[in-house]
Amino acid sequence: MLSLLTMVRDSDESLAVFVKRVREEKGLSLNDVVRKSGYAISNAYISKIENGESINPTPKKLKALSKGLDLPFKRLQQVAEGIEDDEVDFADSALKLLYEKLRTAAPEDRRFLEASLQVLTEWAARREEARVRG
After folding, report:
1. CB-CB contact of 77 with 59 (8 Å)
2. b/e string for 84-102 if b means 16 or more Cβ within 10 A?
3. Distance between CA atoms of residues 104 and 98, nearest Å
4. Is 42 left (phi over 0), alpha (psi -120 to 50) or beta?
5. Long-range contacts at 25-29 (CB < 8 A, ≥ 24 apart)
6. What is the dihedral of CA 11, 16, 18, 24, to 10 degrees?
7. How far apart are CA 56 and CA 24, in angstroms?
8. What ranges do the domains of the chain cover?
9. pTM for this structure?
């Protein structure tokens, strides 16, 4: 599962730096990204993005790249447009990512993730109750 930290970037991190960092953090080669994108983007084009030679990729290319990197399209689009992390509704992005992963998970993984979420939900409720009681 994608680390939520992968979606966060330094405020001065360009699209080029962000894409290269995410790809390397995931241990993906350029060819891996091409394959995961369904061959909708070439390794030469990804390389141009990472080297800053393509600074304004089309939405179609960003969508292919987001699929290849297993990132939400909206997040990659925000990075491309230079939107700062504090302008991004991070919770919604994280929840959408979790939903997408749950939807496509194998049944045993889905049961594990659902049980984990239940434990976290109960923990959060107990913390909130303790906070309210003071």
Report:
1. yes
2. ebeebeeeebeeebeeeee
3. 10
4. beta
5. 26/2, 26/69, 26/70, 28/68, 28/69
6. -150
7. 22
8. 4-87, 90-133
9. 0.60
The answer to whether residues 41 and 61 touch, using CB atoms and an 8 Å cutoff, is yes
Tokens of 77: 């689009």
Pick from 7, 1, 66, 73: which is nearest to 40 by CA? 66
Q: What are phi and psi of 81, to 5 degrees?
A: -85, 0
Q: In degrees, to the nearest 5, what angle opens at C-alpha 8 toward C-alphas 109 and 23?
A: 70
Instruction: Please say whether the beta carbons of 55 and 46 come within 8 A.
Output: no
Which CATH class, in words, describes the domain spanning 4-87? mainly alpha
Distance of CA 79 to the CA centre of its chain: 11
pLDDT, tens digit only, all 134 positions of the chain: 444 444 444 456 889 999 999 999 889 999 999 999 999 999 999 999 999 998 889 999 999 999 999 988 988 888 898 876 554 555 556 666 776 777 778 888 888 888 888 888 888 888 888 888 87
Other beta carbons within 10 angstroms of residue 33's beta carbon come to 23
